[in-house]
């Protein structure tokens, strides 16, 4: 490809490859599972923006952001005897946890203490169903336990914006606290999202694997009026042999 000549604020020397990003939304904000499917199709069509390592099944990271599927989560949590507050009065944290029992319990305890310390309500946890068939062995070796934590709005939270700010604080606070514990497998801890509006499904996956790895994304009850897809382009791929080990 022939690039334009240097002119004004443009300099062809600044051209470089970047991640692939795609977005689909319903113009009238009508939620449907079709939007999820279209977002995943966009993601698959962005596969050329990513890369693989020595194993062609090992991706550098891909994911999708959708609106919180309130009905789906409400029905899922009801199976545990947990009734979620009205939509907008609770948030969902997508959490990657270490596989070791002791480390995982330590991370969960930090999150639960932080929720209470910040004056919010711990509603419960949910195990996110996954299917790792077809994943590269390196991805399986670094695969975390994926759980969702449900957080209800506490006193003094006037609206969803206030809850969103509190969830941001919780996400950053717990991350710093857990890393300070220096757990042997603490690097497996990661919070892809913690929000009252959206939830992120991501991982060290190929673009086409996101929709099969996370079984939630196949459920017709999982609906959204928007989907933001991301295929990671890593600059380290220009160096042979470099392989990121974090599932996120």
Describe the structure.
- The chain is α+β, with helices and mostly antiparallel strands.
- The chain folds into 2 domains: 19-68 and 198-233; 70-196, 2-Layer Sandwich (Alpha-Beta Plaits).
- 28% of the residues lie in helices and 21% in strands.
- The protein has 6 helices and 8 strands, in the order E-H-E-H-E-H-E-H-E-H-E-E-H-E.
- The strands form 2 sheets. It has a 4-stranded antiparallel sheet, covered by helices on one side. Strands 4-5-3-6 form a 4-stranded antiparallel sheet, with helices on one face.
- Helix 3 (101-117) crosses helix 5 (160-180).
- The radius of gyration is 19 Å and the shape is globular.
Question: Would you kindly provide a brief summary of this structure?
Answer:
The chain is α+β, with helices and mostly antiparallel strands. The protein has 2 domains: 19-68 and 198-233; 70-196, 2-Layer Sandwich (Alpha-Beta Plaits).
Total strands: 8
| Structural class based on helices, strands and sheet pairing | alpha+beta
Can you tell me the overall shape? globular
What Rg do the Cα atoms give? 19 Å
The span between the termini is 33 Å
Mean pLDDT: 89
**What would you give as the CATH superfamily of the largest domain?**
ACT domain
Domain count: the total is 2
């Amino acid at each position: 490809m022939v690039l334009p000549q240097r002119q004004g604020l443009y300099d062809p020397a600044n051209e470089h490859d970047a991640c692939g990003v795609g977005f689909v939304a319903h113009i009238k904000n009508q939620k449907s599972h079709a939007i999820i499917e279209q977002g995943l199709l966009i993601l698959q069509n962005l596969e050329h923006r990513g890369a693989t390592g020595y194993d062609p099944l090992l991706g550098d990271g891909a994911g999708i952001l959708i609106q919180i599927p309130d009905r789906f989560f409400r029905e899922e949590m009801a199976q545990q005897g947990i009734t979620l507050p009205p939509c907008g009065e609770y948030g969902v944290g997508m959490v990657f946890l270490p596989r070791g029992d002791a480390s995982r319990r330590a991370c969960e305890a930090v999150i639960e203490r932080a929720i209470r310390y910040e004056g919010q309500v711990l509603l419960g946890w949910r195990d996110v169903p996954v299917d790792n068939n077809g994943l590269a062995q390196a991805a399986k070796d670094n695969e975390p336990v994926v759980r969702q934590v449900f957080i209800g709005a506490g006193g003094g939270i006037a609206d969803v914006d206030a809850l969103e700010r509190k969830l941001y604080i919780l996400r950053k606070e717990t991350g710093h606290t857990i890393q300070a514990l220096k757990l042997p497998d603490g690097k497996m801890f990661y919070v892809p999202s913690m929000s009252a509006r959206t939830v992120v499904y991501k991982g060290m996956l190929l673009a086409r694997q996101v929709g099969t790895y996370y079984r939630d994304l196949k459920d017709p009850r999982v609906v959204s009026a928007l989907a933001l897809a991301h295929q990671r382009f890593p600059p380290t791929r220009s160096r042979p042999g470099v392989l990121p080990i974090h599932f996120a």
